[in-house]
Amino acid sequence: STRNGASQIATGGDIITAVDGQPITEGADLSRAVIDKRIGDTLRLTVQRGGQTRDVTVNLQAFTIPNNQQ
């Protein structure tokens, strides 16, 4: 998740604290960090998981909605 003030946005249990070294303190920060990225770009996320901080490399992929959910 990413923190938005006192709340968090769920992202699988992790807390995203930075993208490519840029701090993420609210949901809008995360949006700004990826808005100009393209499919295939690689990002370095700094996350808190289980009380530990770690860097994770992710590759952006297209999101598709299953036909039965459109």
What does this structure look like?
By secondary structure, the chain is mainly beta. 11% of the residues lie in helices and 41% in strands. The protein is built from one helix and six strands, in the order ββββαββ. The chain has one helix spanning 27-34, and strands at 2-4, 7-9, 15-19, 22-23, 42-49, 52-59. The strands form two sheets. Strands 4-3-5-6 form a four-stranded antiparallel β-sheet, with helices on one face. The protein has a two-stranded antiparallel sheet with strand order 1-2. β1 and β2 (7-9) form a beta hairpin. The longest helix has 8 residues, at 27-34. The radius of gyration is 13 Å and the shape is globular. The mean pLDDT is 82.
Topology:
Elements: E1 2-4, E2 7-9, E3 15-19, E4 22-23, H1 27-34, E5 42-49, E6 52-59
Antiparallel strand pairs: 1-2, 3-4, 3-5, 5-6
Across the major sheet, the strand order is 4-3-5-6
The overall average pLDDT, rounded, is: 82
Low-confidence stretches: none
Q: Quickly count the helices.
A: 1
Helix vs. strand class: mainly beta
The number of strands is 6
H/E series: EEEEHEE
Taking the sheet with the most strands, its summary is: 4 strands, antiparallel
The amount of beta strand, in percent, is: 35-45%
* Overall helicity: 10-25%
| Shape call | globular
Radius of gyration: 13 Å
* Distance between the first and last residues' Cα: 26 Å
Summary of the model, kept short:
This protein has 1 helix and 6 strands, in the order E-E-E-E-H-E-E. With 70 residues, it is mainly beta.
